[in-house]
Predict the structure.
Amino acid sequence: MIIPMKKYTFLVFHRDYEPFLTQLRDLGVVDITLKSAGIIENDEMLQAALQHEDELRRLLKQGAPDQLIQERANIEQRIAEAGQEAEKAAVWGDFDSARIQALKEAGYTLRFFACPEKTYREEWGIKVAEKEGKIYFVVVVDNSITQNIDNSNLIENATELLQPEKSAAQWRQETDHLKGLLAAADARIEAWKIANLDRLQQELQEARQQIDWQRVQLSTDKLADGSLCLIEGFCPIENEPELNAMLARAEVYYEESDPTQEDATPVKLHNNKFAKLFEVFTGMYGWPTYGEFDPTPILAPFYLLFFAMCMGDAGYGLVLILFGLLTHYKKVNIEMFEGLGPIIATLGVGTTVVGLFLGTFFGMPLLEASWYPESLKHLIISGNVMGFDAQMVFAIGIGVFHICLAMVVKALCYTKRFGFAETLSVWGWVLLIVGGLIVLSVSALLNLPSQVTKWIIISIAVISALAIYIFNKPGRNPLLNIGAGLWDTYNMATGLLGDVLSYVRLYALGLAGGMLGGAFNSIALMVLGEHPTWQWLPFLLILLFGHVLNILMSALGAFVHPLRLTFVEYFKNSGYEGKGQLYQPFRK
């Protein structure tokens, strides 16, 4: 839900302005209305403060100054280059570079070559090594004898290589030395962190505080030649008493009122522990405006259900529970999942429960499992409904309910924001679609006479038609209303069917994940055979690799597609805009 707000206008004498701002910041309950970004961000002092904040953030993120980071990167690069050189030199054995130099001084030069094994001839030189179908050999050139090896047929069949600067052993010694330098660089970085990180964190907090202070000052209107300062802001109604008490002590003139539709009122959400986990998804789309509704309480259970259906496997749910708990208690530290342990575990619980109804456990069909209790098998959704797979019909049924719920929410929200007269068309569609489905369902369940059902449907159709085509905009030309109604009808006819069919993905993704998991089980059992000995190892490796891969792919699809169903199908039909701004009070 959205916490009600109160709008405040403060009028402060210029000498009391900064002390008043200090008290307001210390209280920390008022979201100050800031001027447009273009006006504020052009201020030179604020720009300097923002650049300083960015520099502090960058320094904290990389954990050391550029000089130390670059020094470490250079050492790592030299280690990589030394490793490559050692690999190149290894083919020539552990030669002594000093002895090669001594030969050169004595008038003999060594030239290094490589050629395909098939073309090598022994008279070319001294064979040193054979590797990957190539022969590596050395030619000893007497500098006192005039000869040009480049003009012989040797150069046509072999590739001359550069003389290794060092032997492989020498390069390995160089690598060990560089690793020591790397450890020393790491120690310097760690020492810098110990000496500076706390200070930088404090400096960053002070920089943020200074930026907030400057933004508030730039958003303050100066009246009466600067002798009066005017500030506006919003306070949650739950904090109203303490703010009024502070204002009474400060002897500041203020006006308090309810926000209007024209005000850019921030929103503060208040949800239970379960729904609060899913506020992150609401924020991904956009926060509600003050006049809208908070979609999180409805988003939360449906996203959980959709995710669980896309995963579709009770065993995979247990894995998610374990991973979520390990992440929450810092036993597994992966940056991208930081702070998401509780919601991962919650999604795992939902996947486990729904997976039992869908009848899959680590790719095994529970209906065929002899160890699974017969009493629980009756709860599994299976068989056909009107010639279609029961689970597919179940997914589409959820989609119909989800969209109908969205239409009802839209009608209620629009009525609250714009009044009943302005939302007759919306209510007409709700009556026609939602009311029609309810009547047909009740008629089928209670076996009502066909004539009764017929006249109820006709009555609903007539009332809906009047709301959609005649009274959709009170006071407007009836012909324009009819045209607008026809356009709405076209959009509904072309959009609703596609929206409902989108929910088939819940069935398709769950089915695909289950089939892939079952395929890995079958492959592993084929490798295991009837009388396994050493085959247990590949059996376990195939199961581990296959199910880890399947969990990762299923989790990706289960994350994305429920978001799509929520952001597109549900939000579109519920009229949710998500263009609001979150409540961010001026505080330390």
Notes: The longest strand covers residues 5-13. The mean pLDDT is 87. The CA atoms of residues 406 and 573 lie 5 Å apart.
